[in-house]
Design goal:
Chain lengths: 322, 148
């Protein structure tokens, strides 16, 4: 029986180098395999796509989803007002730590926009972050929130967007820093951060609170700006809605949990009135990127604004995330 | 130097500091915005049905907005970009013409309301929406949200 010390004294042979090289090669192959597996796009299941296609879609209902989802805020041309907000020609430049995202044209133009997309392609973009060619979309498009949307709402929104005008505007590609320019890496981001779990657990939620949770965590995608992110661009789950540095420059995005310095003294009806009118309880007004979001919120049914307010009063309080 | 002289000097010194401080443009413009907010609130309470329509109060509010806007753009001299919790965005100095035009446009809207004041609540509602759109359209570009 050889002792461990006896083994350690065994002279190194040429064979050891081969083993090391072989081991490295194997590790590389395994690593590449894991990378490929982890970063692979996972489309929406056939069953779910069938359910979405079977839904009785209604464009009028889809319009309220369009405003709740804030589509025009990014996809309409900069400075668009009134009816022009329905022309989703893209072109807005979203700056981030990873580079600049140039918002695509999602109008009904078959060539420049997504006029050629069927409902399945649309559902894959909204719910799985996958483009019609099967590749990953960057999460600057907030499918990390839209993933929570219902089959019916996806079908309704698609129906409404088919009614919108076409724009033949062709936009520049994203200007991202290496390695974020490698699209396949988005699969790793999804592996780490993409799921449709509730952001918070609310005990004994009534219908209004559940509706508010759905709107804020799903189509409204409020947390995409109001929650701080980690270095890889994932939302810090434990600081849900705690506020964050302004991704587009100086300043901050406010903490909208009940612990936020601005909102802590607001009643639910103050929050609902702010979303409707843009006025804080002391008649300061909405500013920054929220101006456009508030215009969207003003288009919702009053009951939906009240549901959002109820949810914001019910979420766990956090200190500022900025 | 007597104690009295010291106290007198200290008092005058303090007064000078306070006067200089109060004259800082950051403070002046913040106070103006508070006035405009108060005037807006007075009208909003009528629009929301929390208070009865009162034409005299509407004219008073519009006058506050008009006179504040007349002076407002002048409160952003070079050198007042930072300090005193200012939420002024750098865009004010980058696009000064547009910034001034927005203030003047709000002033003109308020002046039009003073010249032809709403006779009843419906008239106020019709004026209030378009008038207060100016708040957001200016704050969208020219105000930063700061920690606080």
């Amino acid at each position: 029986m050889s002792s461990p010390s006896g083994e350690a004294k065994r002279p190194a042979s040429k064979g050891a180098g081969v083993y090391v090289l072989g081991g490295l090669a194997l590790a590389t192959v395994i690593g590449a395999g894991i990378f490929w597996f982890v970063t692979e796009p996972h489309p929406v299941s056939d069953e779910r796509l069938a359910a979405i296609e079977a839904a009785d879609a209604d464009a009028a209902r889809g319009e309220s989803l369009f405003w709740a989802g804030g589509c025009a805020s990014c996809h309409a041309a900069d400075g668009a007002e009134g009816e022009d907000r329905l022309v989703l020609s893209g072109g807005h430049r979203l700056t981030s730590d990873f580079g600049t995202f140039v918002v695509p044209n999602i109008s009904t133009d078959a060539k420049a926009g997504m006029g050629g997309w069927d409902l399945k392609s649309f559902a894959n973009a909204m719910l799985a972050g996958i483009g019609p060619d099967g590749s990953h979309l960057y999460p600057s498009f907030p499918y990390g929130s839209y993933i929570r949307m219902s089959d019916q709402d996806v079908a309704d929104l698609y129906a409404f967007m088919q009614t919108l005008p076409a724009s033949d505007e062709i936009n520049a590609p994203h200007e991202l820093n290496f390695p974020f320019s490698i699209r396949r890496l988005v699969g790793g981001w999804k592996f780490l951060f993409l799921n449709n779990d509730p952001r918070v657990e609310l005990a004994n939620a009534d219908d209004q609170l559940s509706r508010g949770q759905y709107l804020v965590e799903g189509p409204g995608h409020c947390g995409e700006c109001h929650t701080p992110r980690n270095l890889l661009g994932g939302l810090k789950a434990a600081e849900w809605l705690a506020g964050a540095p302004n991704p587009e420059g100086e300043g901050i995005v406010p903490n909208i949990t009940p612990g936020g310095p601005d909102i802590s003294a607001w009643s639910a009806s103050d929050i609902a009135y702010y979303l409707e009118s843009g006025f804080t309880p002391d008649f300061d007004s909405v500013g920054g990127s929220m101006v456009d979001v508030q215009k969207n919120m003003a288009e919702l049914e009053a009951a939906d604004r009240e549901a959002i307010a109820a949810y914001l009063k019910a979420v766990p309080s956090h200190p500022n995330g900025y | 130097m007597t104690v009295r002289t010291l106290i007198t000097a200290a008092t005058f010194g303090l007064a000078a500091v306070v006067a200089a401080y109060a004259a800082e443009p950051q403070e002046v413009r913040q106070e103006m915005m508070k006035q405009v907010g108060g005037a807006t609130g007075a009208m909003a309470k009528m629009v929301k049905g929390q208070e009865d329509f009162d034409q005299a109060k509407v004219i008073e509010a519009l006058t506050t907005i008009s006179s504040s806007m007349a002076e407002f753009p002048a409160q952003f001299p070079e050198g007042s970009e930072t300090g005193m919790d200012t939420e002024a965005a750098p865009a004010i100095w980058e696009k000064k013409d547009d910034f001034e035009a927005k203030a003047m446009s709000l002033k003109e809207e308020a002046d039009a309301g003073i010249a032809n004041p709403p006779a009843d609540l419906d008239g106020l509602k019709a004026m209030f929406g378009p008038l207060t759109k100016s708040c957001g359209s200016c704050h969208e570009t020219y105000r930063l949200k700061k920690e606080g």
